[in-house]
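Key idea: predict the complex, not the pieces.
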Amino acid sequence: MNEIFTGPVSSQAKLVSILGTLGLVIIIAWLIKKGHLRAGYSLLWFLLIGAMLVFSVSPTALFVLSGLLGIYYPPAAIFAVLAVMLILISIHFSVVITKHERRIKRLGQEVALLRKKLKGKRKSSRVLGSRQSH
Amino acid sequence: MHYNDTLIIIPAFNEEATISTVIKSIKRECPRMAIVVVNDGSRDATSEKAKNSNVEVIDLPFNLGIGGAVQTGLRYAMENGFKKAVQLDADGQHDPKQISLLLKNLEGFDLTIGSRYLRKTKYPLSPLRKFGNNIFSFLIKMTCGETITDSTSGFRGFGPRAISFFSDHYPADFPEPRSIVTFLKNRYKIREISCEMKKRQGGVSSITPLKAVYLMLSIPIAILFESVKVKEARYE
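Result:
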């Protein structure tokens, strides 16, 4: 039974997964170039893509990994690694969003307070101006 | 009353139905106190009505929620040298007559809270609300060792130390109970005063049944996390 899974991956599947991964690289590189993705975040995605590439090129890596993790069905190891990485990336994004919310809140407050102060200044300078004109 | 150093902060989100009446009654009770309405991105005429009532109005560029609005008011108090502040709802459920109670009791304390539950008041209380409130009280007692009977009350008096602390550290989500926990954890003193409150006089409550369930689950978690947070923690 196990032989089915330890045997070489069909060249067709290999080709598809390599092409898919390369496609992702191109998308991310394009996003960075266009300025839609900060280079800092791209590291995460390149790590993820790198892992996918390793597994799609060499099934041996997959078998070693599943052996280490004690997973009997090697393809499941891919999903496990992918799930963990996606969860980590999501947590990372929640942290980033929280930070941005805090900053936006502060900015909103500052803008409102400054606008208030500015209005007060204008009002008092108008009073001063009318006094001077008399 | 002579409180030139006191600012009354009214956070308001879509409260055009009640804001004018509330301001009028505050002016009647405390004629010499400064009043600022923090308009939290209302989509109705709240801001115009407040301006027509001749009070200071701070218009937030977008809705920040009650926590962000109150904090804006406290920062305004800080920047303009006010020593004390009172937070009061724009929907008319807090009685301006009791503002002096909150301020008087600041003697020796940093924060005073108008409580509906300290003594029996006429405030209509649903069983669910009572249950939730008891849980919050129990958790605050457990984590901070202090009894706060009405941790969700938005009728509060701030002393100088509270103004300075909260203008920097005011939680955005579930601000009322969390601000109590973080305040107590930083060794400030809170005093509750029994206050009579009315049901809101107009507008719509922000709490729907679904939201009530969400709050009942989230606030206890928030209280627990707040109590283990390090001093000077950052706020979202």
